[in-house]
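Ticket #4471: structure export looks truncated?
Reporter: QA, pipeline team
Priority: medium

Steps to reproduce: submit the single chain below to the structure queue and open the exported record.
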Amino acid sequence: MPLTRRRFIQGTAALPLANSIPSLASAELKLGNASLTTVSDGNLVLPSSFIFEPMPQDKLAPIITEFGLSNERLTPDCNLALYQDGTNTVLFDVGSGPDFAPTAGTIVDSLDAIGLSPEEITHVLFTHAHPDHIWGLLDDFDEPVFYNADYMMGRIEWDYWWNPETVNTIGDARAAFAVGAKRRMEMIEDAVTLFDDGQEVLPGIAAVSTPGHTPGHMAFELRDGSTSAMVLGDAIGNHHVAFRRPNWRSGSDQDADLSIATRKMLLDRLTSEDMALVGFHLPNGGLGRAEKGSDGFNFVAKDA
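Actual output as written to the record:
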């Protein structure tokens, strides 16, 4: 049965709320004189079918058992990468804000817990414009939360959500995503910088095209000498099937086949270069590494 907006809303409304108390960054990675951590925006509560429905159910069952997953709901963490180099304080995405999910939208409290205020964020770099990544741009009064920041988004992603036809072509399940993204983008239209694949958007931060989850999804390579990390956004969207079976189609991706190619490219690169990673929906703060296993890949979280 295809996912519709009504099924998505009904499914999430019927699920019990998970704990949304903000948490501190779980680990820190040093990149020369800079640091990379994560801060929590809470978590989502999703019907499992949102991801699992297109997958071969007989082969999926052992993975669900191995990882202790539920056939009814998933509660993925929302980790916002935070990069500080002594000059720039960069937040990757802005979370859900007050209007998307009752268990998410805690980024301001989480920043406060580590001694940062919204006005100290100098740059916001967007991986893509799904609600849990961009709706946190505005507060309860429709004012920008990170009002001192420079905003940056990939050109293809911006053009996709800015296009007035997107709301008519994205499908019923995601129509509200398009409306919400456009409304928030209108608030920063005069303050956003657009960039392209391979461009160094800030010193030590380069854009990496990772389409599929959305048409213009971007990851970011952070590098200082031989030390590097990849901020993945949702290009690798979970720690279970996305790693174990990167060639399976996921219901969470707008272009499932293109997402497969992107995941395989990223996992090959991350493992061959032994590169650290930050995944928006990965557990334990989302900071860690990918490793080849005897059965697909594994996510190995970085120790605190």
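Status: closed, not a bug. The export was complete when the record was re-opened. Leaving a note from the reviewer for reference: Residues 1-23 have pLDDT under 50 and may be disordered.
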